[in-house]
Design brief:
- The complex is a heterodimer of chains A (about 120) and B (about 250).
- Chain A is mostly helical.
- Chain A has four helices and no strands.
- In chain A, helix 1 packs antiparallel against helix 2 and helix 1 (about 10-40) runs antiparallel to helix 4.
- The longest helix of chain A is centred in the N-terminal third of the chain and has 32 residues, at about 10-40.
- Chain A starts with 9 loop residues before the first helix and ends with a helix.
- The radius of gyration of chain B is 30 Å and the shape is elongated.
- Chain B folds into two domains: about 5-35 and about 205-235; about 45-200, no CATH class.
- Chain B starts with a helix and ends in a 15-residue tail after the last helix.
- The chains are: A mainly alpha (about 120), B alpha/beta (about 250).
């Protein structure tokens, strides 16, 4: 089956997705480190530390919204299946997943662009 | 390949379920935002001249705590009927306070309607003979709409008239001008009149829960969008020739 021509917007969308995947993944790690620290320290946690981790969690929430937007955009352009979108969306909430995904998604998207028949 | 009708029904059901979950979680966070919000202490009491001038719209001055010095005017006080205070039928006493010229901010004295307090509706009395010069502390309330005078059948009490609203525009016809447009609810009361309870404290929403609520609703919108696209097989049928993708 001949692949349809890749949308010229794919490289841009891929770039935005990769940037957001790295930022979201980093914030997610910070959120989890904060959670673990709070679990270990319990009530002895420094109030400033609690405030800062709370702030990071809040910022992560909105970064995740942007991440989802870039994810959906790339997903639309690449015409991938629903299952892939679910995995990509999980990348913003499962630690380290976004870093792994970011490489695989980029590789696949590039392959698809390279393998497509230019009109 | 376009999804089969059965698959579309499945996707539609899944989408509706996801959106419902997001909406409900958002509402739950919103209720938490209200429940875990901190109580905001009211602004400390200030001289009335700082927040409100006579004969001007009350606007932001409403619910501010103020103190005001003046003398009780030698005019009829108003007994306001048909009220409920702390679950009891109540009558309110509203008196005219002539605010000292140096306390109004305009250099001219003005009349402020003051809710002195309340009593059970069955036992109204006249105003207590008070000291000439008073300092009243309380919070400002919005004026009420004037209503056509309803012939009140309450007993006549010397020094008072009956009414069922606290409307400065009505009072202006009998009380010395200029009048304030707001009403002061006194914290002190008087010998026969109990002060009205203070206003309920204002609560601030918990920002974090508000953010989470908004995020859940955004996720719901994403789910709706993606569900709609998925039902059309991601918007395009790859077996069809390409058209208008630019």
């Amino acid at each position: 089956m001949t692949q349809p021509a890749a949308d010229p917007r794919v490289p841009g969308a891929l770039k935005r997705y990769r940037i957001m995947a790295i930022i979201t993944g980093s914030f997610l790690l910070a959120v989890f480190i904060g959670l673990f620290a709070k679990l270990i320290l319990g009530d002895g946690a420094n109030p400033t530390f609690v405030t800062v981790t709370g702030l990071i969690a809040m910022v992560h929430g909105w970064i995740y919204v942007i991440y989802l937007a870039t994810t959906v955009h790339l997903w639309l352009l690449m015409r991938w299946g629903l299952g892939r979108l679910v995995v990509m969306a999980l990348g913003g909430v499962v630690p380290f997943l976004s870093f792994v995904l970011e490489r695989r998604i980029a590789a696949e998207a590039r392959a698809a662009v390279a393998g497509s028949v230019e009109p | 390949m376009t999804p089969s009708p059965l698959a579309r029904v499945g996707i539609a059901a899944l989408t509706v379920a996801l959106v419902a979950v997001c909406v409900v979680l958002g509402m739950w966070q919103w209720s938490r935002a209200e429940a875990t919000g901190v109580t905001v202490a009211p602004e400390p009491s200030v001289p009335i001249a700082d927040v409100l001038a006579p004969a001007t719209p009350a606007g932001l001055a409403i619910s501010r705590q103020v103190s005001v010095s003046g003398t009780w005017a030698d005019v009829d006080a108003v007994l306001v009927s048909g009220r409920e205070v702390e679950g009891e039928e109540a009558v309110l006493l509203v008196r005219a306070l002539v605010v000292d010229a140096d306390a109004t901010g305009t250099g001219q004295s003005a009349t402020l309607p003051v809710i002195v307090g309340w009593r059970h509706a069955s036992s109204p009395v006249g105003p207590d003979p008070g000291p000439g010069q008073v300092v009243v502390t309380g919070y400002l309330r919005a004026a009420e709409e004037a209503t056509p005078a309803s012939g009140h059948d309450g007993q006549a009490i010397p020094g008072t008239v009956w009414n069922d609203t606290i409307s400065p525009s009505e009072l202006a016809q009998v009380w010395p001008s200029p009048l304030y447009s707001a009403v002061l609810s006194s914290y002190e009361g008087s010998a026969s009149w109990d002060p009205l309870p203070p206003p309920p404290p204002e609560r601030e929403l918990n920002i974090r829960s508000v953010m989470y609520a908004l995020e859940w609703w955004v996720f719901g919108a994403f789910a709706l969008f993606v569900g709609a696209r998925a039902m059309r097989d991601n918007g395009r049928d790859p077996s069809q020739p390409q058209e208008a993708t630019q």
